[in-house]
C-alpha cells in the first residue's frame, strides 16, 4: 500500500535510531512544505514536497492525506503505563490530597492492594473491554505505541490473565503494545511477612513460566521503602535477565534507595520515576545509557517535587516522558498535561519534551531503530496537529491537538483500534 502525506506546513522530528542524550535532545529536524511517502507502512521518502511528489506522484497512491499546512510530528510513545486494572480508588485520591501519604495507604492494605482485589474479581472479557477502551483513548491523543504492565494480579492466575489479555490486545489492535511483567509490584496480602518466599515464587515459578509462554518482553520491579528493597530487587531482576527479559525499574520514586544505580549496574533499558534520584544515580544512568523515564503526571497527582529533568539532561542522560496511567498514584493518561508539566514545571524545552515522548520513549522500549522519528526505514507513525507548529503543543495548554493519527501508513478514522 502506498501512502502520501503532503502539504505539511511544518514537519518536526528528532533523528536517530537510538536515544538522544544530553543536549542532542533539543535538536530537532524541522522542515517546511514537506511530504512523507510510505510503502506498506514503512517510510520511503521524507523531504520537501516538491521533491517527494516528483519521485512519487499522487496519482500512484492508494491513500493520500492533505495535511492542510498543519504540523506533522512522530506518533507518541507512552513507555510506562499500568492501563489494565479493575475498580477505581477515588476516595483514596481525595484522602491523599488532604494528607494521608501514598505509602501509608499501601501499608494499610489499600493502594495497590485494593486494585489487586478488584482486578482479581473482574472477568477476562471485562478486562479486555476496559483495556481496549483505554487504548483507544490513548490513540486519540496520538499515542501510536504504548507499554502496559501487569502487577495488579500478583497471584499466578490473575497475572497470567493480565499478560495474556495484553497479548490479545496487541494482536487485535493497530497500536504497538510492549508488555511488561510486574509481579513485583507489591507483596500480596496472602504473603504478608513472607516476602522472601514471594521473591522465590517470582524467580522460580513465574518468571520461567512467563518466559516460556513468551507473555512479556520486560520485567519491572517496584523498588521502594516498604515494597521491594534493593537486595530483593537485584535478585528478581538478575533472575529475569538470566532468562532473557529486558529490564525496567520503578526507581527512587519516593525514597532514594539507589534504584537508579542498580538499574545502571544491571544494564536496564530504563529507570522510571526518579523523583528522589541522587547525583550519583544521575551520573550512573548517563554513563550506562539507561533511559531515565520521567512521569510528570504522577508527581503532579502525588503533589511531590518533579524529577530533576534539567539535571539529568545537563548531566548527559537520555530522558523519556511517559504517563504512568494507573488507578492510584496517577489516574491520568493525559498527554497534553504531561507535556505542559514537563515544559512549564520541569524546565524541559519543547524540543526536548518532543524527543522525550517520541524517539526516547521508543528507546525506553528498545525500539528506537523502528519507531520514534520520521525517517526513511522507520514505521510511518505520524500525527497531524490542529496547528501549524509543534510549539502549540504546550502553548495551547492541556488540550489535545491531534487531528489525525497515521499508524504504519494507515489513516485512522475516529480513533479506532
Ligand atoms: O508507578 N509506584 C508504583 N506503581 C504505580 C502506582 C500503582 C498504584 O498506585 O496502583 C506507579 O506510580
Ligand atoms: Fe508505574
Alpha-beta classification: alpha/beta
Any idea of the CATH class of the largest domain?
Alpha Beta
Sum up the overall morphology in one term: globular
Number of structurally distinct domains: 2
Please count the beta strands (DSSP E, at least 2 residues each).
16
Give the fraction of residues assigned to helices: 25-40%
Oligomer: single chain
**Which ions, cofactors or small ligands are bound in this entry?**
N-(iminomethyl)-L-glutamic acid, fe (iii) ion
* Alpha plus pi helix count: 16
Explain what the structure shows.
By secondary structure, this protein is an alpha/beta fold. It has two domains: 2-74 and 372-412, Urease, subunit C, domain 1, CATH 2.30.40.10; 77-363, TIM Barrel, CATH 3.20.20.140. The protein is built from 16 helices and 16 strands. It has helices at 49-55, 90-97, 102-107, 112-121, 124-140, 156-172, 195-212, 230-243, 259-266, 279-288, 296-302, 309-314, 335-345, 350-357, 359-364, 392-395, and strands at 2-13, 29-39, 42-48, 63-66, 71-74, 76-78, 143-149, 176-184, 218-221, 246-251, 270-273, 291-294, 319-321, 382-385, 402-407, 410-412. Strands 1, 2, 3, 4, 5, 14, 15 and 16 form an eight-stranded mixed β-sheet that branches. α7 (195-212) runs parallel beside α8 and α9 runs parallel beside α10 (279-288). The chain is globular and about 70 Å long. The protein starts with a strand and ends in a 5-residue tail after the last strand. The mean pLDDT is 96. Bound molecules: N-(iminomethyl)-L-glutamic acid and fe (iii) ion.
Amino acid at each position: 500500500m502506498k501512502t502520501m502525506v503532503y502539504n505539511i506546513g511544518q514537519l518536526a522530528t528528532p533523528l536517530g535510531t537510538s536515544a538522544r542524550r544530553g543536549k542532542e535532545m533539543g535538536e530537532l529536524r524541522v522542515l517546511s512544505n514537506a511530504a512523507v511517502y510510505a510503502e506498506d507502512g514503512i517510510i520511503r521518502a521524507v523531504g520537501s514536497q516538491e521533491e517527494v511528489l516528483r519521485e512519487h506522484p499522487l496519482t500512484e497512491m492508494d491513500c493520500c492525506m492533505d495535511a492542510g499546512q498543519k504540523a506533522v510530528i512522530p506518533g507518541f510513545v507512552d513507555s510506562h503505563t499500568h492501563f489494565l486494572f479493575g475498580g477505581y480508588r477515588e476516595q483514596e485520591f481525595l484522602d491523599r490530597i488532604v494528607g494521608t501519604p501514598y505509602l501509608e495507604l499501601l501499608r494499610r492494605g489499600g493502594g495497590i492492594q485494593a486494585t489487586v482485589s478488584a482486578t482479581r474479581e473482574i472477568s477476562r472479557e471485562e478486562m479486555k473491554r476496559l483495556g481496549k477502551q483505554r487504548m483507544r483513548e490513548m490513540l486519540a491523543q496520538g499515542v501510536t505505541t504504548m507499554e502496559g504492565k501487569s502487577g495488579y494480579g500478583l497471584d499466578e492466575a490473575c497475572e497470567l490473565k493480565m499478560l495474556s489479555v495484553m497479548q490479545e490486545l496487541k494482536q487485535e489492535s493497530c497500536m504497538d503494545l510492549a508488555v511488561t511483567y510486574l509481579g513485583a509490584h507489591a507483596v500480596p496480602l496472602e504473603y504478608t511477612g513472607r516476602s522472601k518466599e514471594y521473591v522465590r515464587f517470582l524467580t522460580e515459578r513465574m518468571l520461567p513460566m512467563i518466559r516460556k509462554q513468551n507473555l512479556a518482553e520486560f520485567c519491572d520491579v517496584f523498588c521502594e521503602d516498604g515494597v521491594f528493597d534493593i537486595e530483593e530487587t537485584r535478585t528478581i531482576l538478575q533472575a529475569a535477565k538470566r532468562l532473557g527479559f529486558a529490564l525496567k525499574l520503578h526507581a527512587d520514586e519516593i525514597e532514594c534507595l539507589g534504584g537508579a544505580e542498580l538499574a545502571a549496574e544491571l544494564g536496564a533499558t530504563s529507570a522510571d520515576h526518579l523523583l528522589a534520584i541522587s547525583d550519583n544515580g544521575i551520573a550512573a544512568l548517563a554513563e550506562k545509557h539507561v533511559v531515565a523515564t520521567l512521569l510528570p503526571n504522577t508527581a503532579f497527582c502525588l503533589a511531590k517535587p518533579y524529577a530533576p529533568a534539567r539535571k539529568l539532561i545537563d548531566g548527559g542522560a537520555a530522558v523519556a516522558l511517559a504517563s504512568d496511567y494507573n488507578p492510584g498514584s496517577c489516574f491520568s493518561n493525559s498527554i497534553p498535561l504531561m507535556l505542559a508539566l514537563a515544559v512549564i514545571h520541569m524546565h524541559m524545552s519543547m524540543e526536548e519534551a518532543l524527543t522525550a515522548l517520541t524517539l526516547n520513549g521508543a528507546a525506553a522500549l528498545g525500539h528506537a531503530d523502528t519507531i520514534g522519528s520520521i525517517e526513511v526505514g522507520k514505521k510511518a507513525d505520524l500525527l497531524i496537529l490542529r496547528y501549524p507548529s509543534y510549539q502549540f503543543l504546550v502553548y495551547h495548554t492541556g488540550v489535545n491537538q491531534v487531528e489525525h493519527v497515521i499508524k504504519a501508513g494507515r489513516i485512522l478514522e475516529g480513533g479506532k483500534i
